[in-house]
Amino acid sequence: MREIPQRELRNNVSAILRQVESGTSLRITVRGRPVADLTPVSEKKSHLTPEEVERIVREAPLDRAFTADVGAVAGDTVDTL
């Protein structure tokens, strides 16, 4: 990860934000000490809503072997999702 001083960020904020938007991550320093990471925003979801999980299970149910394996390890929890 490339480091840039706060001064460079302040003086070139538009150009730096274009770099980040294109996928580059940067570490911001103040007096040579790292203080923040500037990274692109991910469009990926970090979690699914209960409704989304229910739809996925309904449309593509788990196969019996997977359900049995989970049941053997964790008990009968798969069907309660």
Task: Please supply descriptive tags for the structure shown above.
single chain, 81 residues, 3 strands
What does this structure look like?
It contains four helices and three strands, in the order βααββαα. With 81 residues, the protein is an alpha+beta fold. It has a domain at 2-38: YefM-like domain (YefM-like fold). A three-stranded mixed sheet has the order 1-2-3. It is elongated. The two termini are 40 Å apart. The relative contact order is 0.12. The model has no long low-confidence stretch (mean pLDDT 85).
Concise synopsis of the structure shown:
The protein is of the alpha+beta class and 81 residues long. Helices cover 44% and strands 19% of the residues. The chain is elongated, with a radius of gyration of 23 Å.
Query: How many extended strands?
Result: 3
Helix content: 40-55%
Would you tell me the structural class of the helices and strands? alpha+beta
SSE succession:
EHHEEHH
Which architecture of one domain would the CATH scheme give at its second level?
3-Layer(aba) Sandwich
Instruction: Name the CATH homologous superfamily of one domain.
Output: YefM-like domain
Number of helices: 4
Could you name the ranges where pLDDT drops below 50 across 5 or more consecutive residues? Answer: none
Strand count, sense and closure of the main sheet?
A: 3 strands, mixed
Q: What do we call the CATH topology of one domain?
A: YefM-like fold
Q: Approximately what portion of the residues adopt beta-strand conformation?
A: 15-25%
Provide the residue-averaged pLDDT. Answer: 85
